[in-house]
Amino acid sequence: RLDKTKQDFLLPLLESGLVIMIGATTENPFFSVTPAIRSRVQIFELEPLSNQDVKEAIQIALTDPERGFDFPVELDDDALDFIATSTNGDLRSAF
User: Fold this and answer.
1) How far apart are CA 79 and CA 77, in angstroms?
2) Neighbour-count burial of 79, counting CB atoms closer than 10 A to its CB (0-12 exposed, 13-18 middle, 19+ buried)
3) How far is CA 4 from CA 9, 31, 37, in A?
């Protein structure tokens, strides 16, 4: 956790380019990150994948010999729907 004191410590390092910061938070950065830090970084908000996105990724894993499974797998539409729905947009949990 980076409280205000720790964020203030990082500020000159970020400004000088000595430090490149990559961070992730489940908190709203507009409340948890100081304005001075926010003005020097890019903020990307990641959204959960749609069920269709998950299904497409699973289909690629099932059919692409180079990037997918290295063995044949059959999955019917009901199972595919169930897996896609139960991931809640997090593709990592589909596999």
Assistant:
1) 5
2) exposed
3) 9, 11, 10
Q: What is the DSSP string of 35-64?
A: HHHHTTS---PPPPPPHHHHHHHHHHHHH-
What's the start-to-end Cα distance of the chain, in Å? 31
Q: Report CA-CA distances (Å) from 2 to 9, 45, 78.
A: 10, 19, 45
C-alpha 67/C-alpha 56 separation (Å) is 13
Token duo for residue 45: 């908000």
pLDDT tens-digit profile, the chain (95 residues): 889 999 999 999 999 999 898 988 888 999 999 999 999 999 999 999 999 999 999 999 998 988 888 788 889 999 999 999 999 999 999 88
**Residue 37: Cβ within 10 Å count:** 19
